[in-house]
Amino acid sequence: MIEIHKLTKRFGLFTAVDDISFSVQKGTVLGFLGPNGAGKSTTMKMITGFLSPTSGSAKVCGHDVESEPIAAKSRLGYLPEGAPLYPDMTPRAFLGFIAELRGMAGDRRARIEEVVAKINLQSVLDVPIEHLSKGYKRRVGIAQAILHDPEVLVLDEPTDGLDPNQKHEVRALIRSMARDKVVILSTHILEEVEALCTRTIIISNGKLVVDCSPAELAAKSRYHNAVSLRVPSSQSERIAKTLGAMEQIAKLETVPGNQGRDTLVAFPRNGASIAADIGAKARDERWEIDELRVEAGRLDEVFRTLTGATSPSAL
Q: Is residue 304 part of a domain?
């Protein structure tokens, strides 16, 4: 439902997005990741028709964004970075205005009430937007994006400025809508990727560097299948010596802790599973262990490895 082909955007001599291609089908929540300045927002602006590409193409539900802009935009909802709104309007007036612009058929008032209930905007519906908190402004931005029930949602940092409860609500809303839509979600919150996304794309310096599932991305981490043990500091050296002698373990790290506890991290040789062997050794030698945890992989570590140094300022 979204097709990106060799999409490129240059600003003078600077290439913000460099020849990227991918497609996204219905039922996918795509986590679109990258450091500041990587080209995420620029790509989103081209997909939604707010920027023209230097070369390449973007199609939404089969409609080219450049040659068929109205048909393409009618099928997508867009929450841009910062969620620009009309500050002198109330959420009620603003959503009514958006419904009119969208040419929404049927009972507009009923649809606005439905969306307001989903986003929990009832208490501020008649408060001027300029007096709302950042979190409520973000919610109004989400409401306008989903008001016409689009087939495609492009959300740039949708939970930015929301408190933990509000983030939970928005994530639940995205999950509920994702079954029959395409959702592209830009975020810096890696736990959000794990919680929401079925697929991840990372771009760095305008280039696509990885396209896989969150689980496959985590498996690229050196922590994948590593085992962390929290043990008494008084026993840490002895346990570490035993672990270090095990053939299945390629490397061991000791992280000194507080309250008389250390963390030992055992890295498997060739990514093999070592938890059972360590558990058996712990039982045989009667180790005192507060916690034994198998690591799925750390997305933050993979992200840093794939993207390298900080990119230029965001576009």
A: no
Give the pair of three-digit tokens for residue 85.
């709104």
At 94-126, the pLDDT tens digits run 999 999 999 998 889 999 999 999 998 999 999
Identify the CATH number of the domain in which residue 276 sits: 3.30.70
Tell whether the model's pLDDT for residue 313 goes beyond 60.
no
R_g of the chain computed on alpha carbons: 24
* Runs of H (alpha helix) within the chain: 40-47, 69-73, 91-101, 108-119, 134-146, 164-178, 190-196, 214-218, 233-244, 275-285, 299-307
Average per-residue pLDDT for the chain: 91
Strands laid side by side in the 207-212 sheet: 76-79, 152-156, 182-186, 29-33, 199-204, 207-212
How high is the pLDDT of residue 315? Answer: 38
Q: Residue 104: inside a domain, yes or no? A: yes
Instruction: Answer yes or no: do 277 and 250 share one domain.
Output: yes
Phi and psi, residue 63, nearest 5°: -105, 125
Q: What is the pLDDT of residue 135?
A: 86
**Rounded-to-integer distance, Cα 200 and Cα 217, Å:** 8
What pLDDT digit, counting tens, does each position of 256-271 carry? Answer: 988 899 999 999 998 7
Print the domain residue range for 45: 2-219
Rounded Cα gap, residues 40 and 21, in angstroms: 13
* Alpha-carbon distance values, 150 to 14, 145, 265, 286, 299 (Å): 33, 8, 46, 59, 31
Asked whether residue 44 is assigned to any structural domain, the reply reads yes
Residues 164 and 268 in one domain: no
pLDDT tens readout for residues 204-235? 999 999 999 999 999 999 899 999 999 999 99
Query: Is residue 311 situated within a structural domain?
Result: no
CB atoms within 10 A of CB 159: 23
Neighbouring-strand partners of residue 11: 14
